[in-house]
Specification:
- The chain is mainly alpha-helical.
- Helix content is 56%, strand content 4%.
- The protein has a two-stranded antiparallel sheet with strand order 1-2.
- β1 and β2 form a beta hairpin.
- α1 packs parallel to α5 and α2 runs antiparallel to α5.
Length: 167
């Protein structure tokens, strides 16, 4: 991949990440307070653990892309983040800042091949798409928790029964 190709991909993917982040934030904020320990089965994460994984992994992905190195660091949820709305506010601030850092990468850095924790290598720009896939996967999981928790499902890709599409 040439640097010019990588920069086009990076710019396109960062735009998508920004659009998707707004939807992710809505899903995080839709978690009803007091239902943090809800999980649909014993194999599932709790709602709060899933929400924190979704938000913190998105920020970690973008930070790793910006730094040009992936090294997993377990990031415990800060004690002050007590609700889905708290996590959504943290996510809004931190993810937006990291996407801005990634968007500012030069064409050469966008094309630079980096490793993913020893599993495989790809140009830095390609990892934004990987971040999106991971985020959308877990956002989908969390959205299925909302109604059983007593919450409302926001529109994601069109309306929902709780938030109809307004055209």
């Amino acid at each position: 991949m040439t640097p010019e190709q990588a920069k086009v991909i990076l710019d396109f993917a960062c735009h998508d990440a920004t659009v998707e982040a707004a939807t992710t934030s809505k899903v995080l904020a839709a978690m009803p307070a007091g239902k943090d320990d809800f999980k649909p089965s014993e194999k599932s994460m709790t709602a709060m653990d899933l929400a924190w994984h979704l938000a913190s992994a998105d920020v970690w992905f973008m930070d790793s892309i910006a730094k040009g190195v992936f090294a997993w660091v377990d990031t415990p949820r800060p004690a002050e983040l007590q609700t889905g709305a708290d996590i959504a506010a943290w996510y809004d601030t931190n993810f937006k800042a990291k996407v801005a850092e990634v968007s500012a990468l030069s064409a050469e850095k966008a094309a630079a091949v980096i490793g993913f924790m020893g599993a495989f290598e790809a140009p830095a720009a390609a990892f934004v798409n990987m971040c999106l896939k991971h985020s959308i996967h877990h956002r989908g999981q969390l959205s299925t928790y909302l109604r059983p928790m007593g919450g409302k499902v926001p529109s994601i890709y069109g309306g929902s029964a709780d938030e109809p599409f307004k055209g």
